[in-house]
From TrEMBL, chain A:
It is a multi-pass membrane protein. InterPro entries: ABC_transp_permease. Keywords: Cell inner membrane, Cell membrane, Membrane, Sugar transport, Transmembrane, Transmembrane helix, Transport. Pfam families: BPD_transp_2. Coiled coil: none annotated. It comes from the Bacteria. The keyword Cell inner membrane applies. It is found in: Cell membrane. The keyword Iron does not apply. Part of the binding-protein-dependent transport system for D-xylose. Probably responsible for the translocation of the substrate across the membrane. This is Xylose transport system permease protein XylH. The chain crosses the membrane at residues 39-56, 68-87, 94-112, 118-141, 148-166, 195-212, 233-252, 258-276, 305-328, 348-374. It comes from Streptomyces ureilyticus.
UniProtKB/TrEMBL annotation, chain B:
Residues 6-243, 268-512 form the ABC transporter domain. SUPFAM superfamilies: P-loop containing nucleoside triphosphate hydrolases. PANTHER family: CARBOHYDRATE TRANSPORT ATP-BINDING PROTEIN MG119-RELATED (PTHR43790), XYLOSE IMPORT ATP-BINDING PROTEIN XYLG (PTHR43790:SF1). The keyword Repeat applies. This is Sugar ABC transporter ATP-binding protein. Keywords: ATP-binding, Cell membrane, Membrane, Nucleotide-binding, Repeat, Sugar transport, Translocase, Transport. The keyword ATP-binding applies. It comes from Streptomyces ureilyticus. GO terms for molecular function: ATP binding. The lineage of its organism: Bacteria, Bacillati, Actinomycetota, Actinomycetes, Kitasatosporales. It comes from the Bacteria. InterPro entries: AAA+_ATPase, ABC_carbohydrate_import_ATPase, ABC_transporter-like_ATP-bd, ABC_transporter-like_CS, L-arabinose_ABC_transporter, P-loop_NTPase. SMART domains: AAA (SM00382).
Amino acid sequence: MSTDVTDKSPAPAPPGKAADGGGLLQLMLDGMRRNMRQYGMLIALGLIVALFAVWTDGDLLLPRNVSNLVLQNSYILILAMGMMLVIIAGHIDLSVGSLTAFVGSIAAVLMVKNDLPWPLAVVLCLLLGAAAGAMQGFFIAYLGIPSFIVTLAGMLLFRGLTEIFLEGQTLGPFPKGLQKVANGFLPEVGPNTNYHNLTLLLGFALIAFVIYQEMRDRKRSQEFSLEVPPVKLFVLKIVALVSALLTVTLLLASYKGAPVVLLILGVLVVGFGYVMRNAIVGRHIYAIGGNLPAAKLSGVKDKKVTFLVFLNMGMMAALAGLVFAARFNAASPKAGLNFELEAIAASFIGGASMSGGVGTVLGAIIGGLVLGVLNNGMNLVGVGTDWQQVIKGMVLLAAVGFDVWNKRKVGS
Amino acid sequence: MAGPVLEMRSIVKTFPGVKALSDVTLTVQQGEVHAICGENGAGKSTLMKVLSGVHPHGSYEGDILFEGEICTFKDIRASEQHGIVIIHQELALVPYLSLAENIFLGNEHATRGIISWSETLKHATELLRRVGLSDHPDTRVADIGVGKQQLVEIAKALSKKVKLLILDEPTAALNDEDSGKLLDLILELKKQGITSIIISHKLNEIRKVADSVTILRDGRSIETLDVKAKETTEDRIISGMVGRDLEHRFPERTPHEPEVGAAPALEIRNWTVHHPIDQQRKVVDDVSLQVRRGEIVGIAGLMGAGRTELAMSVFGRTYGRYHGGKVFKDGKEIRTKHVPEAVKHGIAYVTEDRKHYGLNLIDTIGRNISLSALGKVSKRGVVDEHEERQVAEDFRKSMNIKAPTVFEQVGRLSGGNQQKVVLSKWIFAGPDVLILDEPTRGIDVGAKFEIYTVIDQLAAQGKAVVFISSELPELLGMCDRIYTMAAGRLTGEFSRAEATQEVLMRQMTKDKEVTR
């Protein structure tokens, strides 16, 4: 059954060209086929960016707008990462929108009403989010109540508590320090180069790090005398990675520099990506989502893992709540409305599966960016929020529909 | 008796790669109870699926004549319209609907889509009385026991004007009392003119209800015997079931000499487990056994004998309700209440159901192999992917897993290769005791031999192996010692020299001795 995969693949490789020594294209296509979903969404994201770049006469890719895009979507991306873990583990979390608002309201009560120093308040809020997640995780993992029910209850409960704590009012403003974190940019240092120096430095450092990592990875593979992809493909991959990173770095550096939030996001992506790929606990999350009985019989502590996944989700919701409240400089009872749905949509667009066990952190980011660029681009060309929702709904359906269709064709 | 009601002539049914039925002939007389018996995998269920239209006409070769006419059933509905109703081993009742609703499900008393409840209740009450149930038709199925549910299934069959009733191992899940009632009902229905086919392993049951018995073996019908005839003894039936030509091959094995004085690697004492839902029923009843290092010990038994249940409940209590018993490892009592504890004490359980309990089908070969012992390829909670891949590559080569790379999804592999992945996974965990549950189920002969060889090597390395299997030849070919189980109890223990198929089958088909 697996042999006919290559024949029926939709990749438009003209039979003539594949033969004439230009094996590079063939190699690329082979690699992509193995990760159809990820590359598919990456290509879709590229197409959406290109489409809106043309449609908005390049406004979409103006440095200012790229900065904005990051700031506008930061909280959804934070939520999407946590949600991805939840969905990979085979669960769902409907409470994160309400939890986001709830933590925002507590943050306001602590900082605005009681004048607590903001770093202390931030730590308290993160702990509160973790506690809320842990509570839900306890019900789900140890009492066996379905996550849909527990978090549906949480969604109502935290929304209600938000209104109680805020007494229906909007509370603000937040301390300057916190605002800077959520809305500000990295500080300016060094001589005037027309670019934001620190951002450039960080960007170059990142590029160097990525190259180093890829080289090291390749070398380690060779040490273990394992097969590695051919040099040509390896170089191509590095070139693609470097040029993408360089473009974003230059775009951001030519405006006010990298937003502080982007740094936080970057740390989270790398951290969660690493955990899900390389840490034992990450493996266990995939295993319980992929086949729970088999994972149990393999000695995976499924309850503990589930509990931790929800605890983490709570903490991420708290972080998103802080960023959101600080960005709008107020805690509102209506904050975070439908955020859970955006985060869930981002995860599914980014390659998660309803039955669990599948997905990557990077996928959640790609899915979140697809939605974010759609939002931003449609705003720029003046599409109303009514039509925006219609279009986003169709994109979600198309993305998952494509995946289902693709899987069926492969016949797995 | 008025001639045959059913004739199945030269039925051949092939699945991709497997010939499930080759040339089966079955003749059932009008008004009789006809038993079909044979080992697991002999083709009994497939034959009944062909008869009832689960495998539609055209997907098999040969003819089916029912009441003298050639049948071309395209689905179950078509066979039911002719009065052929099959009751599967797994009951097909909706637990949260009432008895009456279940009886008439898909066959409702209704006019233009609106159900007439008075008519439904009236008929349901009549049908329930016919099968000897006095429960109210509004009772939910979930609220009655398995024995009564089986009777409800028969009531449902009766509502379809059944002429030929097929029961697939109807008493496998029942206790003695319920089994007795069910068998009486089959005899009662026979008086009312309903012909029955009953698939069963239990020879005493066959003797009690059946008029004739057809024996299947390796997808062929071997013979049909008259049960009432004097010469049809239980031994006669057993020899029919097992008398196959031994074409399986096994690696050369030097039988293990038990070392004197050393404590057994694994010892289970007085292990008792109750059914997870029907908590009165003992699924494993006071079982004690032991296995030494370097020894391969078989557990023989038919479906429902409690072998898997025993293994899983010992391995982290992953089945049923524990009701007592102790586990000893090298003479010391150990706790195996949770899977990680069992694994830590060096016990591995390789499941009989690799798709549901053994593998994460959507993940790669490499990640499946490392899952139960990730610590071995990690430092401080971080998996070294290179080392993991190296380990997987080594297993791919040594176990001869046929896949281009270790990044292949396990779900795409053939059964034999999947089984090698499960075995690799547990060998990688480095256990002292391996419990292998039907390790060669559903895989081809070549892969079987490879797996036998691996098992042999494991024993030679000094590991203790418990080998659970329904295939007697492979137990006889591989084991140093064989226990037999029936109805949750240990019914015998035989050395390699003592064991023969006949002797084992006799102990495996032994229902509780007390009832004799």
